[in-house]
Design brief:
20% of the residues are buried. This protein has 262 residues and is mainly α.
């Protein structure tokens, strides 16, 4: 006969284990439910962040497009201003040339002075030697011709150098050396003491954006006014250099010149 106590003990143990398993299963189910809720909340947050990110990206794209359009408008306006400035300077130079030609004409109605004829004096005619003309023909290479003009300038052949620099400007205004050629054309006139012409050419340097000759041209404009005795204009231009180009190498010379202006 089996031991009744043993049988009862086994049943009690099985019942206890069954109760523990039920509690563990219930606890696991509750934990899974909590994690499911947390996952759903995280999914909603991720979706919200994704939607917000898409919205921000669209705003950034719109801003970038608007900025691009504004930059295009600004560049177009700057180009128009440069073209107008060039037309103004060319017209100004043309008018100054016409005024100079008119001033050299003899006024109408003025009686001619009768020249007193003198007996001819026999003088041995001596024909001075004709200087050999300088070859300033184009080589076809922009940089080579620019160097040729620069060498002519350093040799003191300012008219020939000016011819070279002017031909370079007319050939291609968009070349990287065009602004330098424009500056040196002004220097040729300045070296010949043609200060009004030099002034007009130096002003054209500012047509080229980001030119490395802007500060030098600004200083030379002040010098042109100074040499023409127009001291208020010279002072104004030199002060403009100090204001617009505080790090320029021409700042000390501008200050020295300002001290000399009465």
């Amino acid at each position: 006969m089996r031991n009744p106590i043993l049988i009862i003990s086994i049943f009690c143990l099985m019942f206890a284990l069954s109760g523990c398993s039920s509690r563990q299963v219930k606890a696991l189910e509750e934990q899974m439910d909590r994690e499911k809720v947390e996952n759903e909340m995280l999914t909603q947050e991720v979706d919200s962040l994704r939607a917000l990110l898409i919205k921000k990206e669209a705003q950034v794209a719109n801003l970038r497009e608007g900025l691009t359009n504004k930059n295009a408008v600004i560049e177009e306006q700057e180009q128009s201003m440069n073209e107008l400035r060039l037309e103004y300077l060319e017209l100004k130079t043309s008018l100054e040339g016409d005024a100079t030609g008119m001033a050299q004409e003899e006024p109408a109605g003025q009686p001619a002075v009768q020249e007193v004829k003198k007996p001819p004096v026999q003088v041995q005619s001596v024909t001075p030697p004709v200087p050999k003309p300088v070859q300033v023909s184009s080589s076809g290479d922009y940089q080579t011709d620019y160097r040729r003009g620069y060498d002519l300038f350093n040799e003191g052949k300012y008219n020939d150098a000016g011819t070279v620099f002017n031909s370079l400007i007319q050939r291609n205004r968009d070349h990287d050396l065009a602004d330098n050629a424009q500056f040196w054309l002004g220097e040729c006139h300045y070296a010949l003491k043609q200060y009004e012409s030099a002034l007009a050419e130096f002003e054209k340097v500012f047509i080229y954006p980001n030119s490395n000759k802007s500060d030098a041209a600004q200083f030379k404009i002040g010098l042109c006014w100074y040499n023409m005795g127009r001291y208020p204009e010279a002072k104004e231009q030199l002060i403009r250099l100090l204001s617009n180009y505080p790090g320029s190498e021409y700042v000390p010379r501008s200050r020295d010149l300002l001290d000399k202006i009465p």
